[in-house]
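P.,

For your records, the input lines for the assembly:
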Amino acid sequence: MSRSIFIASMLISGLSVSINAQEAIPQDPFAAEVLIPKASYSHQVVAQSYYQANKINRDNQFNPNLINFPNYQQLSVVDWQLKSHWQSNIQFTSRAIASYEKSNIDDDKNLDLLEGYFSGHSDDYAWQWQLGRVHTQWSNGFNWHLMNVLSPYRNRPYIDIDNPIQQKGWDILSIKYQHQQWFYQLLVADYQRTRTATHQLQYVARLGYQGRNDLSLLVHKIPEQKASIAASYNRLLNNNMSLRAQWKQSSIREQSTQVLIGSQTQRKQYQQALLGLGYTVDAGHDFRLEYLYSQHGFDEADWAHISKRSLLAYHNIFNRRGNGDDYAYLGAALSSLGLGQLRQRYLYLSYASPLSERLWQYRQSVQVNLDDDSQLHRLTLLKSWNNNLTSRVQLEAFNGCSQCEYGLTPNKHNIRFVLNWAF
Amino acid sequence: MKNRLLISLLCSALCNMAGAAQASAPQTPTSAAQHTPNKTVTQLLDIIDGYRGLGQEGFSVDITNVSYKNSREPRQNKLVVDVKNNDSIITFLSPARQQGRVLLKQQNNMWLYIPGTRNVIRISPAQRLLGEASNGDVTGSNFSDDYDGVLIPSDDPAQIQLELTAKSHAANYHQVTFWLQNKAPYQPIKSEYFARSGKRLKIAHYKEFKTFDGQLKIHKMLLSDPLVKGSYTWMLFDNYRANALPSALFNKEAITNR
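Structure tokens returned:
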């Protein structure tokens, strides 16, 4: 009896598969089982290369043909990451890159240690420490990262996500304690105001909570400056939506103002605030919206001054009547493009399609400067060709008037072809 | 898509594991069946959950997924999964382009660690569910805690049929139907997962079991998507091992330091 029941059970089980599938069911691929090997170390090598063609912005009020920007640029990077467990509670992590950069103007080769640190933890993971060069990531924003406060500022993925130096860490000693959902961290890091300045120390204290509501608060102190304070919050609103917010107050302005606006209208503290919303529909389409307010950027009065002064300098130099002040002014104006937001109110919108069966994905985003209505549009098409090779085609278009932020960029538009091979 | 499918399938397994860990003192399937041939629904749910967990202890398991579609070549993923209570950490070992990613799951909250940028970002449940399984995958299922069950009269005396209905809207599936053997050790045979609309979204066939440290566990499972012709995923669960996972490990501040 029991045997017949067993046979019936098996028949029914098998029959149900046939009925449901109505097509060839793939054979068990695990006939020869292979356990995942345990290793005392893991490493990965990633090779990435891109070629970018640029359409130069010839009508640039900050650049009366004083500086040549490249028509094209190539970057090839070999990225090696290693994680080695020395003992059960101690490990060593490193990340090194070798890069070769070439354009129609110059070329450059570099070897760089992005990260290299020992880390450890107590048996219960309550205590954790890190010593060495570590790339910290404390932000939870989509496009802007106010919580990554360690100086000097390098974290600007909204400018170039393929720049490997953005992943370079700081030389730090960090101690972290976790208790239930709370964490507390103290960190001391090397600090240089400029590359040739004396080495000093900067300090960070963090605390935070993890859960449906994520909270974090940090205090950052660099030499001879008042402490900066930053806070972040993010929350899962429902199965499809998440909310994130960040705020930072700093006594140091990201923009260098001495040349551009003198010492007028300087504040004691500069505020930044960010509010973001992520929405993923069930079918996989992903939308993000983020608003940024930053007092580091220039207000209407300052910008009117900069526009007027840079226009004067531009004409003076263009008509061969420029003096040292004119050159210095446009030099500072050009540099300001890489120091952070030029203005104060920004909006970021992005869309990402679900990955297709063939592993294609389309992404599109726009950053809008709400103060001058200029925009940066970025359209990206990604494709994974196999387990190792991924490619990306990215088009960036800058749109704005000659005195607007995205109308002042070196390129009008560019297109980049990226290949990434993960070994 | 592959990544999302992977997460989706994985969470399917994980959340059941987590459910097993939370179930009140789940009996091992063998011992339970030998003494009480007629099980209550609660006992049957504990048994189902017990096939994927190690009681209330933390544990780890290796998972390999091979997904099939008519339109493309099969794809394989390998992961290591750590589970404790309702928390889990999924470490991606392959494919190479996803190696090193870590997914932390605490109840309905999820964070993804991306090794290239060192970012740990919150993701919404919809993001983990995207892909061929849509929003109706078995993720988040904790049958003992999350579902009410009733026994359905079966024409086949060799099988038990259970119909489970979600206790709340937070559950990933409105209804689940389970078929189990009507004798010790009450091995699951098949399960079907339904959306609130009544649409059948997923079918799981439990193809092989294996004993780990004296406890019988699901070893191989075949998932099929009735909405997509030719869509199958084989899942291999292997190397179950008890693992004293500290609670502090299941923290987004800790997963970058493992």
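Two observations worth noting. Confidence is low (pLDDT under 50) at residues 1-22 of chain A. Chain A touches chain B through 80 residues (CB under 8 Å).

Regards
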